[in-house]
Specification:
Helix 1 (7-17) packs antiparallel against helix 2 (71-80), helix 3 (131-142) runs antiparallel to helix 4 and helix 5 (261-275) runs antiparallel to helix 6. The chain contains 6 helices and 25 strands. The protein has helices at 7-17, 71-80, 131-142, 196-206, 261-275, 324-333; strands at residues 2-6, 32-38, 41-47, 51-58, 60-63, 66-70, 85-91, 94-98, 103-107, 127-129, 156-162, 165-171, 175-182, 190-195, 213-218, 223-228, 231-236, 255-260, 281-287, 292-297, 306-315, 318-323, 338-343, 350-354, 360-364. The protein is an alpha+beta fold and 369 residues long. The chain is elongated, with a radius of gyration of 25 Å. The strands form 3 sheets. The chain has a 12-stranded antiparallel beta sheet. An 8-stranded antiparallel beta sheet has the order 6-2-3-4-17-16-15-10. A 5-stranded antiparallel beta sheet has the order 5-1-7-8-9.
């Protein structure tokens, strides 16, 4: 193998594919990145056996070939090099790299020992996703997913495509986020569950793409496939049926409140200073008669605190207790000017959403005091 390419292009490719390199693995070769030539381009790939990432860059290829090289040292080295043209050639599983003022060699492993990587089928039915909209949608949903691996369904994000929209949902059993985005493609309906951490990485990788993301499911291999521009990502899906969460979304409301997001987050943060020293529980009192919302701590050990904000309230006087962490997660991830809050009582599911958005809801279950 013999090729030359621009340092900045190889550095960018390595930054992308090394997201799939495991930090620890019982299979040593997975710590490597696969470099191979493919029709006049350089193909870079990595996998942890759950997720595989491949991206191509332009290169001047003189001799075809392939090699795997330790990913960490190669990425650090190439990223540290100044912008220049890199010359590389392979001799007996050793990759020699030269630039303007440097000469280096990397001990590699035979490419034949690397796991076989999936590819995106040329004729696969797929939907198209706007990269920026998809990234934003995943980011405001993923935080509601769980971390308990004994309940794997809750560690994933549920994607349900039907007609011209895809519904993106996550929950940990105590809170839930749902975002709906439009897409155009006339294919049969499908649904899948993808690990939340993985989908966040996928969305970030493609967020700056100038092309729509092609997204499809390989049911036989239990894989979700994504492709845009010169990058392809395949990740294993989570087996199982997602819970019927629609039944917990309340219809109608006993109380509705619209208030400033900035005012609310300041009040919650101040109250949380006291609440987190106890059990992270805070109480919110909605007083429609006076258009007031009072946020107070419940911890008697460290002291007491109460913040007061105004809002547009309609309904009955209610006091509701919440886990302050759940409120802060919502406020830190969902940016909006005003929040719309609705509930059917102090032990019923509560809906929070940006006032101006009809395609997103967040549900938090209150605490019983």
């Amino acid at each position: 193998m013999k090729f030359s390419c621009l340092q900045e292009n190889l550095s960018k490719a390595l930054q992308i594919v090394t997201r799939a390199v495991p930090t620890k693995s019982s299979i040593p070769i997975l710590s490597n990145v696969l470099l191979s030539t493919d029709n006049g381009r350089l193909k870079t790939s990595a996998t942890n056996l759950e997720t595989a990432i491949t991206t191509y860059i332009g290169a001047s290829v003189k001799d075809e070939g392939a090699i795997t090289v330790p990913a960490k040292i190669l990425k650090e080295f190439v990223t540290t090099l100044p912008p220049s043209t890199i010359e590389a050639h392979l001799e007996n599983d050793t990759l020699f790299i030269t630039s303007q003022k440097t000469k280096s060699k990397f001990r590699g492993n035979n490419a034949n020992d690397y796991p076989e990587l999936p590819t995106f089928p040329e004729k696969a039915d797929h939907i198209l996703l706007d990269p920026q909209i998809f990234n934003e949608a995943v980011s405001i949903v993923a935080f509601a997913s769980g971390s308990d691996t004994s309940r794997p369904i809750f560690t994933g994000i549920y994607l349900n495509f039907s007609q011209d929209k895809i519904i993106i949902t996550s929950t940990d059993g105590f809170r839930l986020s749902e975002k709906i985005i439009k897409t155009k493609k006339d294919i049969k309906d499908f649904s899948t569950i993808i690990p939340a951490k993985t989908l966040l990485e996928v969305a970030k990788v493609f967020s700056t793409s100038s092309e729509p993301i092609k997204f499809c499911i390989n049911e036989e291999g239990n894989l979700a496939l994504f492709q845009a521009e010169d990058t392809f990502i395949a990740t294993r899906t989570i087996d199982g049926n997602y819970l019927d969460y629609k039944r917990i979304i309340p219809e109608g409301h006993q109380l509705k409140a619209v208030f400033s997001s900035d005012d609310f987050i300041e009040a919650v943060r101040l109250t949380n200073i006291f609440a987190k020293e106890g059990n992270s529980t805070l109480r919110i009192r909605f007083d429609p008669a006076n258009s007031l919302i009072k946020i107070s701590s419940l911890s008697e050990e460290t002291g007491e605190h109460e913040s007061e904000i105004t809002g547009e309230l309609d309904g009955d006087l209610l006091e509701i207790a919440f886990n302050s962490k759940y409120l802060l997660d919502f406020l830190n991830n969902v940016k909006t000017e005003k929040i719309c809050f609705t509930t059917n009582g102090n032990i019923s599911a509560c809906i929070l959403k940006p006032q101006e958005q009809e395609d997103f809801i967040h549900i938090i279950m209150p605490l019983q005091i």
